[in-house]
Amino acid sequence: LTTEPQFIAMMRGIATNSAARGLMDDAAVIAVGTETLIITHDMMVEAVHWLPDANPADVAWKLVASNLSDLASKGARPIGVMLGYMLGEDAWDAAFATGLNDALAYYGVPLLGGDTVKAAGNLDARSIGMTALGLATTAIVPARDGAKDGDGLYVTGTLGDAKAGYDLARLGHSEPVFLLTAFNRPAALLDEGRLLAPIARAMMDISDGLFIDAQRMASASKLAVTIDVSQIPLSSEYAAYYDDTLQSRIDAGSWGDDYQLLFACADNLPLPVAATKVGHFTIGDGLTLMDGETRLDLPTCLGFEHR
Amino acid sequence: LTTEPQFIAMMRGIATNSAARGLMDDAAVIAVGTETLIITHDMMVEAVHWLPDANPADVAWKLVASNLSDLASKGARPIGVMLGYMLGEDAWDAAFATGLNDALAYYGVPLLGGDTVKAAGNLDARSIGMTALGLATTAIVPARDGAKDGDGLYVTGTLGDAKAGYDLARLGHSEPVFLLTAFNRPAALLDEGRLLAPIARAMMDISDGLFIDAQRMASASKLAVTIDVSQIPLSSEYAAYYDDTLQSRIDAGSWGDDYQLLFACADNLPLPVAATKVGHFTIGDGLTLMDGETRLDLPTCLGFEHR
Which of B6, B12, B14, B29 to mutate to test the interface with A (most CBs of A within 10 A)? Predict the structure, then answer.
């Protein structure tokens, strides 16, 4: 199998238009008349992006939220989504439609169109795709590559809740609801993204994990980034489930699916939304992890790279 | 399995925004500032939309062309595409990338972004999706529902060539190239679409077959349509391969994949591109097939309904 990085490298050779942002960003950014259009496309695959016994309504919700989260990270206002759907079993499709309707109604985003197909053979590799479209709300759309030497690295909300929800779901637990909801029905932080876009020098959503995504932001910005894991914000539910240990903080930083916003901005700037400073950028390259004053070895897995 | 019409009916209940055009059109149409954005999404599935031994470069070409054809049918100028790709085998992926590059370069359309995923299990239900974006070139974007009583029904080019190419490909033939190319590398008629958009009262591309697509246009326009199969334009290559019989004309009218443009316009209007009048609209409903003065029974299959 071609690895995802190899294929993306091939695509990068094709996607030379500046609107593609070198395929280094969460979304494409293209001028349309007096507006700036923001476009993102995400695919979800059975048994990769959702558990086989997942509630189809949750799958639909997550597909919507993960797409809208990419728009949020650019400070965009959504104008609609397109759905590419592979038919499954009757009940599954009907439940998916319900979840889709709920998520789109919750975010006030219209379904514009799409395509529906059938698989030829068995259904164990079903995939569903969504394209989300939005309009920029700032003249400069935050990219991954805008961090400056001395900037702080900030994250909204708490991290690791989706990981805890995933663990709970696999064990068949139905509580705590907060953690299961973080996994099953993540939020797209559209309001937060719009408020942060004017002051964020770089912004992305944490879909693959704090460490790997911070490393990507630093690499795109041609800087080094240092994260203090003792500053990683944990929910009381997460801390109660795993205990608040160094390892549970490292786990929270190397797990994705939280869809919190990660951004770089000038230090000590008043922030328009609640966020936690977890690190800072300096001249150099690479990721350094600290636990207060103690330097840590990097964990083998910094996040999900091949999803 | 949910049938495609049932699922689309569920989606229609969700897609209530006027930009979705009731999911009755080839593309969504949404105002963006001073411009009008046209958006379409098509999925292709292994063993459904491409033969297992198909050239992956041809698969990529067809994905691009079928998406751009939807834009052509709205008279739109493409501004970019997004790709949702499920990884396959190394050589397949590399050949796909080459075909994608060729097709996008041919049409001068940038790849803006997308998503790459892996299947969890076996690869026999791989699917690939593409979203194409364009800008309207006319104040009124032709829909399916604009035909008027007395309008002529016109089609560009010749029909059935993709069917002949499909038959030839299945038999392992490599000639005639014209027919194989019609199947493997269909053209998106972007220039023709832009020239026709100002005068077409309804327009769509023939992706599922002349008869079924004309019936859809008539139904959307709340009119009846009559097609004279003796007027269906055939290429000399098609006529030579199947003979020019009534049956071969019916086959050409009930087979898709030709991506010619089908449009309604006032009779006897000078046309800006070469096109053939194959029928006309009248008060009433339904499709009537004639062979000159002789009324024909409708064939059981009017085209591809469930792809």
Answer: B14
